[in-house]
Predict the 3D structure of the following.
Amino acid sequence: MTTTPQIGSAKDLMDTVHKYLPVDRASTVEHSLEYAIKAHDGQVRVSGEPFVVHPISTAIRLADMRLDAATIQAALLHDVIEDCGITFKELEEEFSTEVAKLVDGVTKLKRLDMISENSAMMKQIATPEATRAASLRKMLVAMAEDVRVVLIKLSDRLHNMQTLGHLPVPKQQRISRETLDIYSPLAHRLGMYEIKWQLEDQAFRYLMPRQYKSISRLVSRKRAEREIYTEAAVKAIQGPLDKASVTCRVDGRVKHLYSTYSKLQRYERVGRKFDEIYDLIAIRVITDNLGDCYAALGVVHSKWRPVPGQFDDYIASPKENMYQSLHTSVRGPGNYPIEVQIRTQEMHEIAEEGVASHWMYKEGEDGAPKVDNFETKMSWLRQLLDWQREVSGDDEYLATVRTDILQDQVFVYTPKGDVKDLPSGATPIDFAYRIHTDLGHNTVGAIVNGKLTALNTALNNGDVVEIRKARIPRGPSLDWLNLDLGYLITGSAQTKVKQWFRKQERQSNVRRGKDLLKKELRRLGLIYNEKKIVTSLDYADFDDLTEALGTGQISVGRVAETLSPTPVEVFNTEISQAKPPTDQTKGLFVMGEPNLLTRIAQCCSPVHGDEIEGYLTRGRGVTVHRQGCSILRDRENTERHLPVAWGHYETTYASRLKIKAFDRVGLIRDITNVVSSENVNIHSLTSDEDDKTNACTVSLTVYTTGVEQLSLLFSRLETIPGVDSVFRVSEAQSL
C-alpha cells in the first residue's frame, strides 16, 4: 500500500510557479512534478513522511526566488537517478538535455559507479569519505559549467538540515560539519546570504547543542531591549531621510545565532561580554536609485557620528560575488555602535539571493539569463575547471577548493590595477601563481606597496604586489612546500609546485629525496632501515619512496614518525589515562617483565618516539637505549636484551643538539628565541668559537615531547641566518 504524498505542498509549488511563469513553462514544471510523484511512489523518508515531499520542498524554495522553469524541474527530479534507477538518457528523452544535465550534476556518485569507471581507484574509494569527496568534486565541476547545479544543491541541503532531527547523532554531526565546511561558505561565496545564515544556524544547532541553547537564551533575554532600541534607531533616522527627500525604506535586523556566537567568541578574546555587544544590530536603508544611496549616507553621517575606519564602498568596488552596498558604522542613540547598510532594491535582491538573482525569471524575458557581466563577475568559477584538469586526487581537489575558494578572501592589486582575490593569509608566492604558473615557479622577490617584502609575508586587502622574476628559469624551492615556513597557503599553488618537481628527472628526484632522508635521520639520530621504511609507508621500492620525498609528495617528518610507531602499534598493552608523570621512566613499559626498575641511558639519551631496547643489569634494573647505540651493541649477552615500549604518556625528554653556524652578533639570541617560540625548554647552552674562520658550534640540551617536536625544531633552527646545520648527538659523541 503506497503512501499518499502531501498534496498541499505540491499545490503550494504550483501556485507559486503560476504567479510568475507563463502557462507553457508552468506546464513543464507540472509534468516534472507528476513524474517525480510517480517515480518516488512508495518511498518514505526516515521521518516516515513520503519521500517526494523532499524534492517538492527543494523546488518550493527555488520557486520563491523566481528561478527559471528548468531549475524548478531539475529540483523536482534531483533524486530520481540516485534513488529510482532512472537513467540520464530517460530524463533527456522525457524532458530536455538541459534538465537532465542539471539533475546529473546534483546526483551523488555511488561507489559501484566509480569502480566500474576506473578499477584502479577501487582501493582509494573503499571508504564512504572517499565517495563523498568524489561526489562533492563532481558537483563543484558541474557547478562551474552551470551554476544552477549548486542552487539546487543548496536548497536540497537546507531542507535536509531542517529535517535532520530524525537521523542518528553521528550522522547529524557529520552532515552538519560538511554543511559548515562546504555548503555555507559556498553560499557566502555566491552571495546567497539568506540561505547561508539558515544553513549555519541549523548546523550550529546539531554540532554545538550546548552553545546553541546558551546563545538562544542570551538572544531571547535581550530581544525586548534590542527591539525597543532598533525601533528607536529606525525612527530616529527615517525622519531626517524623509526631510531630505530621500525615497527609501528603513528596517532593522539582528544578527543570527551562529554569527552571534562567532562574534561573541571574538569579543571574549578581548575581554568583552555579550551585554556589551550592541553592533549585533544593523540598520538597512533600501533606496530607489543609486544617487539616493549616497544622499542617504550623507544624512546618516550628519545625524550620527561615524566610527573612524569603518566605512566601505562596495557599490564603487563590488565584491567578487556581485554584492553591492555602502557599509558604515556610526554611534547611534545612546552612543552605541550601529552598522548601517545602504543599497538599492536591486542590490538588495542580489545581496539576499546572490548568484540566484542572475537566473530569476522576469516578465517578458525569453528564459535566458540576464546580460549583467555574470561571467566576468563569476570568473573564479573557471578555476574549478582548471583545477579539475590539474589535480588528480579527489581529497586534494576538495582541499584546494576549501583553501582557495571557501575561505575569507583578501583582494590585492597588480601594478596595472587588476584585482586578484586570494584566501586570507596568502603570500606573494600565492599571488604569483594566481597570475601565471611560470611566474610563480621563478619568483625570487616581491615588492608590496613599494617595499621589498619577505616571500612568506601574509598579504592584506588593498596591497599592491609586484613580483620579481629570476632572469634565468630556476624553478620553485622545495622549502615552499614546508608548511612550517609559511611560503604557500593556497592549495592550487602547492599543487603546481608539486607538479613541477614531478616533471623533473626521476633520478634527480630520487637523489634529492635520499639526501633529505639521510639528513633528517642523521640529525634525529634514527636508524636508517630502507626495507622497514618502504614497508611501513606502502611503497613498491625505496626509489619510489625517495622520489616522493624529492617531489614533496610526502614529508621527511612523516617518515620520521613512521620510524617511531606508537606503542599501540607494537604491543597490546593496557595503559591508563592518568595524569602524565613527572618522571619520564614511568612512561616506559618493559614487555614480559613487570615491576622492573627502569632508567634512561645517558650514552644515547633516547626520547619519546625513538626505537628503543632495554638491557637488564643485575641490581640496577633495565637501562633503556636507542636501538643501534654503540654501547648496547658491544654487549654480547643477548639474553639481557629486553623489548621496551614507550607508554601513552606525553612528557619531556632531554636531547643534546649541536648547531654549526657562522658567528655573528645576535646569533645566540635568535637561537633561544626560536627554541622558546616552539615551547621547548633549554636546560643548558654553550658556544665554542673559531677566531680564524669565524665559525662557531653551539651545544645545547633541550627538553621536547619527542621526535615530532624535535624535527619541527630542527626545521625552524635551520632557517636562522648563519646556521649551517643542526643535528642531535649522544653523550659519547659530545665528549
